[in-house]
Amino acid sequence: MNTVDSLPLDPACATLLRCRAEDMDADGAWLFWSNPPSPALCRSLKDHGQLVPVLVDGKGARPVLVAGAARVAALAELGREILCMDLGPLSAEDRGLAYVQSNAGAELTDGQLVRALRYFNALPDVNMERVLEALGLEARSKRLRLVRSWLTLPARWDALLVAGAVPLACSDLLEAFAAADLEALEALFATLSWSRGNAVNVLTWIREIRARDGVSVAQLLEGAGLREVLAAGLSPKDAMTRILHEIRLRRYPVLSDMERDFIDTVRRVSAGTRWRIVQPDVFESNAVELSVRLTSPDGLRAVSAELARIAAREDLDGLFPLGGK
Fold first, then answer.
1. Pairs from 304-307 (Cβ < 8 Å, separation ≥ 24)
2. Please, what is the angle between helix 92-102 and helix 128-135, to 10°?
3. Which pLDDT score is estimated for 223?
4. Residue pLDDT, tens place only, 173-201
5. All domains in the chain, ordered by first residue
6. What is the pTM for the complete model shown?
7. What is the DSSP letter of 317?
8. What φ, ψ does residue 136 adopt, rounded to 5°?
9. pLDDT confidence tier of residue 4, bands split at 50, 70 and 90
10. What does each C-alpha distance from 232 to 199, 202, 225, 262 come to in angstroms?
11. How far is the C-alpha of 65 from the C-alpha of 68, rounded, in Å?
12. Superkingdom, according to UniProt (predicted)?
């Protein structure tokens, strides 16, 4: 069933009317994706006029805007009357569905889906099957599951999702935090836009540290120097790198010490050579990899001598922290 066809009034029977912006109710909660008019839209309306009517429910004392908020704002700025298509009396659910269908064909972002479902979930006796069909969501899809998890968060988090500061993939992790911890976590995302991988990592480490040490998120972030990092004037990339480092250091203190000692040892023993030394297994084994790039037999003889000098050193234990001869 097509959702448009299920609306009370066949669009073919709709009537046209004109009104001024100040005579219209344009504050409906179903206008959940509204944005200010773009410069391109403003130019088009100024140069060519209104080619497409906005949608209204015109059966009350004032026409109620159902879709077309950007055009109404732009035409109001131009001081022009607004051409409206009256869809007839609509319920709150039908107004929301008509608004969704007026945006049909656009690829909906995670933020748009969250805002739409917040609106529909607040309505009594809503036909969720119709809503999900209009939004293009499968009832058993992973995306819908994540959206529903996100909807358990305070609505103020929606702005962070829409801005791209925190990905929808974090909704399961965020859902597990208490209200006070969520409030503390907002500082991580208020000015920084995290990739999915980094956001999942930092939230996972914070949750695990909290469970292990019994500290609040606010205490953890204060100990990690979040306030100082955010105030240091670093680029967003450098700030997130520093935060990730500090949180990981607290989640894996022993591993972090091993990594630091390994790096110090590598710098010391490979100084003046062309050898590259790495630990490939995140210290799950004692393996070490040495590599070098050669272009001639003389180069081979030279790096062989360098390797012999490295092997003769007495300070190689830092390369093999798990022990062994």
1. 306/272, 306/273, 306/274, 306/275, 307/273, 307/275
2. 10
3. 95
4. 999 999 999 999 999 999 999 999 999 99
5. 4-109 (3.90.1530.10), 152-251 (no CATH), 268-319 (no CATH)
6. 0.79
7. G
8. 75, 30
9. very low
10. 21, 20, 11, 29
11. 7
12. Bacteria
Q: Report the run of H or E that residue 33 belongs to, with start and end.
A: none
Beta strands in the chain (DSSP E): 15-19, 54-57, 64-67, 82-86, 276-278, 289-291
**What's the pLDDT band for 11 if we cut at 50, 70, 90?**
low
Write out the two tokens for 56.
Answer: 């209204």
Burial (CB < 10 A; 0-12, 13-18, 19+), residue 313, is exposed
Helix (H, G, I), strand (E, B) or coil at 221: helix
* Contact (CB, 8 A) for 193 and 164: yes
Which letter does DSSP use for residue 96 in this model? Answer: H
- CA neighbours within 13 Å on the CB side: how many for 122? 14
Structure tokens at 79: 């001081």
Give the distance, in angstroms, between the CA of residue 268 and the centroid of all CA atoms in the same chain.
41
Res 13: pLDDT: 60
The per-residue pLDDT for range 282-313, each reduced to its tens digit, is 888 889 999 999 999 999 999 999 999 999 99
Concatenated DSSP letters for 136-191? Answer: T--TT-HHHHHHHHHTTS-GGGHHHHHTTSS-GGGHHHHHTS-HHHHHHHHHHHSS
pLDDT at 255 over 70: yes
